[in-house]
Specification:
single chain; 370 residues; alpha+beta; conserved putative lor/sdh protein from methanococcus maripaludis s2 fold; Elongation Factor Tu (Ef-tu), domain 3; OB fold (Dihydrolipoamide Acetyltransferase, E2P); 6-stranded antiparallel beta barrel; 4-stranded antiparallel beta sheet; 3 helices; disordered N terminus
Length: 370
C-alpha cells in the first residue's frame, strides 16, 4: 500500500509541474510599437532615358603655338590664370627677326632714293622732249636728234616704273619683317582661362608645336557620346537634364547645341555637344551624364527618403499585414526627382517606413503618424 501511495503522489507532482511549464510557454510575446511616417510604393509611367556620358569642355578652346622658330624668353601666365583677348602670353627671342626688320627698312630707304633719282631723270627727259617738239615744229632739229630725245624720255619713264616696282617690293619685305617680328609675341585669341601650359623659358618653339591651351570664359558644354543605334532620337535644340556628380546630385537643364554628322569609326558612336547653364562650380574636365528621353515605361517608385544603407546595399523597412516592419534589400534604378525606381525587392502597393534614420525597426510594430 505504501508503495502504491508513493507512486501516486509522484504522478500527481509530475502533473502539477508539467501544468506549470505549459502555462509559461503559452504566454504571448510582447511586440514594441513605434510611431513613424508610412509611405507606399507605387507603379507609375516614367520616361525611359538613354544615358550619355562625357566630359565638360569650354564652348571654344584654343591651342596656342608659335608661327616662327625661336627660343622662348618669357612665359607670362600659368595654369588657372584668367587672360583677356590680346594679352601677351609668351615672348620668343626676336634678335634675328629684329635684324631682318632693320635690313628691310634700309632696303626701303635705298629704293626710295633710287626712285627719287629716277623721277628726276624722267622729269628732265620729259621736259627736254617737250622743247624738242617745239623746235621740230620750227624745223630747227633733225629727225635723228628728235628720235634720240624721244628714246631717252621713254627709257627714263621705263626706268622710273622699274624703280617704283622695286620700292614696292622693298616695302612688302619690310611689312613682312614687321609681321614676323610680331609673331615673337604670342597673344590670347580671346578672353578665358589658361588650362594647360606645355613650355617653359629656354624651350625651343617650333611652328605648330602646342605651347599653351586656353578655354574661353563663360558657359561650358558637356561633350557626350551616343551610340549609332540611338542617334535618331536626338536632335538639335532638344532639352536634356545633365548631372555633374561632383557639383550636384540633381540634374541641371541642358540643351543639345550640336551633333557631329559623322560617327567615330572605332566606337561607332556620335559626339553631341550639350550647352550647360553658367555655374562657378562647373569646371572643364569634369565628368557628367545626360539623360535623353527615349519613350515611356511602367516602373515601381518609392520616396528616396525611405531608403537606408547597410554597407553598400540599399534597404527599406516593409510593413506586413500586422504592421510589423521587416528589413528588405532592394536593387535601385534611376532617380526620378524625390522618388527612386526599384528594379527588384518590393511590389507596388506595399507600405514602407519613411525616414527611418539609423533606427533598427526590424520586428517592431509601426503605428502610422497622422
Amino acid at each position: 500500500m505504501r508503495a502504491v501511495l508513493g507512486a501516486s503522489l509522484l504522478a500527481v507532482s509530475a502533473a502539477i509541474v508539467a501544468g506549470c511549464h505549459g502555462a509559461v510557454s503559452a504566454s504571448p510575446k510582447v511586440i514594441q510599437t513605434i510611431q513613424a511616417r508610412v509611405v507606399q510604393s507605387q507603379q507609375q509611367q516614367v520616361t525611359q532615358n538613354l544615358r550619355a556620358t562625357g566630359t565638360v569642355h569650354s564652348r571654344q578652346t584654343a591651342v596656342v603655338s608659335a608661327q616662327v622658330m625661336g627660343r622662348i624668353q618669357q612665359v607670362l601666365v600659368r595654369e588657372g590664370d584668367t587672360v583677356r583677348a590680346g594679352q601677351t602670353l609668351i615672348v620668343l627671342d626676336d634678335a634675328a627677326l629684329r635684324a631682318s626688320t632693320v635690313q628691310a627698312q634700309a632696303g626701303v630707304k635705298a629704293a626710295q632714293s633710287q626712285q627719287a633719282a629716277a623721277e628726276t631723270d624722267a622729269k628732265l627727259a620729259a621736259s627736254t622732249l617737250v622743247r624738242y617738239r617745239q623746235l621740230e615744229a620750227q624745223k630747227s632739229v633733225s629727225p635723228q636728234e628728235m628720235d634720240e630725245v624721244s628714246r631717252r624720255a621713254e627709257s627714263a619713264t621705263a626706268k622710273l616704273e622699274a624703280v617704283r616696282a622695286q620700292t614696292d617690293v622693298a616695302r612688302a619685305q619690310e611689312s613682312g619683317a614687321h609681321t614676323m617680328l610680331g609673331y615673337t609675341h604670342l597673344v590670347a585669341p580671346f578672353s578665358g582661362v589658361v588650362t594647360a601650359r606645355m613650355a617653359d623659358p629656354g624651350t625651343m618653339a617650333a611652328p605648330g608645336v602646342p605651347l599653351m591651351q586656353i578655354d574661353q570664359a563663360g558657359a561650358l558644354q558637356l561633350q557626350a557620346t551616343v551610340d549609332q543605334s540611338a542617334i535618331d532620337i536626338v536632335h538639335k535644340g532638344m532639352k536634356v537634364p545633365v548631372e555633374i556628380e561632383s557639383v550636384s546630385s540633381k540634374g541641371m537643364p541642358g540643351a543639345i547645341q550640336e551633333i557631329l554628322p559623322a560617327a567615330d569609326p572605332a566606337s561607332h558612336s556620335f559626339l553631341i555637344k550639350i550647352d550647360l547653364p553658367f555655374s562657378s562650380q562647373i569646371r572643364a574636365g569634369m565628368y557628367g551624364t545626360a539623360e535623353i528621353a527615349n519613350g515611356v515605361r511602367q516602373a515601381i517608385l518609392i520616396p528616396r527618403s525611405a531608403v537606408v544603407s547597410r554597407g553598400s546595399l540599399a534597404c527599406v523597412y516593409v510593413l506586413d499585414s500586422q504592421g510589423v516592419a521587416q528589413l528588405r534589400y532592394l536593387t535601385l534604378g534611376a532617380a526620378q526627382g524625390d522618388l527612386v525606381e526599384v528594379l527588384s525587392g518590393i511590389s507596388a502597393g506595399e507600405k514602407l517606413v519613411d525616414t527611418p534614420s539609423d533606427r533598427d525597426l526590424s520586428g517592431k510594430r509601426i503605428q502610422a503618424q497622422p
